[in-house]
């Protein structure tokens, strides 16, 4: 076990989950992420006498096709009060495995759940070592701004130019500040807030693609321009047709989102709030927390946002150096981010 991972594990176990001796903590890991799982296990044993770590491959092969009976019964028999998913994601697992698993842990068992999908040792040393207290303060300040908005616009130097129309009465903003309560799930590293827009129109220039595509293509050398009308993708094309990787990724992306009802629908408008990150690392779990704009298509996390539709897929895309302006119901405008940097009011309070 790599001892350098322990500070990041400490953040997850104590600061985010607030593990106490009375807790029963379940850690779910896999072959690829076992070192991270082991660091979480060692740290957790400092605070609780009841910790169980299970490995996905001990129950089924990847990609996982379903939440198997043995896997589910192991979890139910342990009856955890808190849980961590510290493992990788494979194509097709979201709808048939991870979503039912999260529902079991949070809704049925009431766990405080830390979801570290795609976590790596690099992220434990980087994002998990940042000042989560400062991040939580910034997340709250951004939340207080955007919940008053009926429209958000975003532009960047690369060609992003999009308007999101919001429905603040029916579609909620969700804070992912790393402080996890009973029956809640937060991604770690934390640091974002998100909602489902009522609709969206314009262009998003994407430098990184989410879910299983992140591992396949990581950060793109040249971006993909995604056109959106009435909240739906109309096209996705490489901005440099000579870039083989970007060209292939745009085709795979469009083919994937086209497979599902609502797969091309904007299911998330997200704003990263984990200040202190210096660069993209090619891992969406952390890169979507980079201060800026990310957009996802498909699954809208309806149980949290209030969306009245669903989709089995969820693919994020990440922009760079966005300028973000909110528009309130009275027409008042406020730029809360300029070229990827939050306003002084948000950063300093």
UniProtKB/TrEMBL annotation:
Transmembrane region(s): none
Pfam families with a match to the protein in the record: Peptidase_M29 (PF02073)
Keyword Metal-binding belongs to the record: yes
Entry GO MF terms: metal ion binding
Keywords of the record: Metal-binding
Coiled coil regions in record: none
Name the UniProt record assigns to this protein: Leucyl aminopeptidase
Organism: candidate division WWE3 bacterium RIFOXYC1_FULL_39_7
